[in-house]
């Protein structure tokens, strides 16, 4: 008996940054597979099922992991450009310049913030701010 099921990678409607594999089985049921589970009865009893195994065999879970990482990195980078984050970075820059008693003009803070965020990755920027915020 051949095992043929249609597998589609979808976004969760409530949590767009979460991806899953939707499986339409030959019996007409629809199941949801994530990187660690399937919502069918067989998986709930045995911690394994044919849907999950087929996703592994077809490399669908590998593809899901790749896409999930891409979505996660996009959501992180977009959160670093939100107005609230930009305002926090500007306040941190102002506090740092004040701490060092460096005179500045407020209109240059925008340019400085853009240069810093373009040349530094978010992790480096956060560690940089933490280093001088004490």
Largest sheet: 3 strands, antiparallel
Query: Which structural class should the secondary elements be placed in?
Result: mainly alpha
Kindly state the percentage of residues in helix: 55-70%
Strand order of the largest sheet: 1-2-3
**Mean pLDDT reading:** 79
Overview of the molecule:
- With 134 residues, the protein is mainly alpha-helical.
- The chain is built from six helices and three strands.
- The protein folds into two domains: 73 residues, no CATH class; 50 residues, no CATH class.
- It has a three-stranded antiparallel β-sheet, covered by helices on one side.
- Strand 1 and strand 2 form a beta hairpin.
- It is rod-shaped, with a radius of gyration of 23 Å.
- The N and C termini lie far apart (67 Å).
- The model has no long low-confidence stretch (mean pLDDT 79).
Would you spell out the secondary-structure blueprint of this structure?
Layout: E1 6-11, E2 19-24, E3 30-33, H1 41-46, H2 50-57, H3 60-79, H4 83-99, H5 106-119, H6 122-132
Antiparallel strand pairs: 1-2, 2-3
Helix pairs in contact: 4-5
Task: Based on the model shown, name its key terms.
single chain; 134 residues; 12% strand
Write a brief structural summary:
The protein is mainly alpha-helical and 134 residues long. It has helices at 41-46, 50-57, 60-79, 83-99, 106-119, 122-132, and strands at residues 6-11, 19-24, 30-33. It has six helices and three strands, in the order βββαααααα.
């Amino acid at each position: 008996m051949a095992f043929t099921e249609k597998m589609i990678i979808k976004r969760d409607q409530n949590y767009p940054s979460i991806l899953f594999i939707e499986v339409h089985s030959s019996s007409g049921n629809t199941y949801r597979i994530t990187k660690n589970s399937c919502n069918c009865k067989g998986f709930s009893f045995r911690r394994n099922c044919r849907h999950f195994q087929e996703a592994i065999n077809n490399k669908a879970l590998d593809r899901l992991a790749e896409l999930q990482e891409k979505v996660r990195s996009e959501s992180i980078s977009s959160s670093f450009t939100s107005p609230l984050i930009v305002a926090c970075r500007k306040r941190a820059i102002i506090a740092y310049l004040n701490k060092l008693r460096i005179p500045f003009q407020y209109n240059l803070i925008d340019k400085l913030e853009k240069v810093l965020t373009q040349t530094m990755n978010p992790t480096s920027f956060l560690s940089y701010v933490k280093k001088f915020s004490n």
